[in-house]
Structure prediction request, 217 residues.
Amino acid sequence: MVDNPEITRSALRMARERGADVAGALPAATLLDCPSAVAEGWRGARDERGTYIVLGLYHDPDKPELDLWEPGRGTPGDRILAGIGRDLVHWLRENHDISARLIPYQIEDGGIYLKDAACLAGIGRMGRNNLVLLPRYGPRVRFRAVWADLDCPEPDRPEREDPCRDCPGYCIAACPMDAYASGRYDRERCMARMNADKASGGKRIDHCRACELACRE
Ligand code: SF4
Ligand code: SF4
Prediction:
């Protein structure tokens, strides 16, 4: 494993130059027992060594097309992130002879808990709406990750005030599925809405973003 913090810094810089709005890194092993893994009973990461480089793309509410989901193709926003990730993988392999790979989006396909990864990389903090809240972008950022055979220094995690602390809960009031009725995000209720969207047979699906778009962060 290569211990070279400068390569990690260059990779993060390059990700931003290629179009990522945010990027951060964390030791892969940090995710093994991340909060989502503990809550859902999955192993949080396939990799016990190396570094996850987390890439984030702002999804401007004025560009809803970034989020339109198509069967077998995902969303245009995710394809942009995957393209940036593939560029990074190529650069790490060709320029530094470092083994790297793009991480699949879905956890079932070998993915990682991307929101946990973003928080543990110091990019943002989890909001009451179960989305990562970021300075400047609020919860309107999608993530993807690359694994690299690099040693990762512990990330800088700036202390941030809890943005939800004094908020009346616009996200909760906006949910059409009452997915926060128990006081916590209920994945099954939320997924029921997503699955109904998918079952509608539309070629491009405009998934619910009510809890995200209602947030004033
Ligand atoms: S709407 Fe309020 S409670 Fe919900 S995530 Fe945003 S800041 Fe937090
Ligand atoms: S995405 Fe829609 S259904 Fe799911 S929790 Fe948010 S508002 Fe509720």
The first strand starts at residue 22 and ends at 27. DSSP finds seven helices and six strands in the chain. The first helix runs from residue 5 to 17. The pocket of iron/sulfur cluster (ligand 2) is lined by residues 174-177, 179, 190, 193, 208, 210-211 (CB under 6 Å).
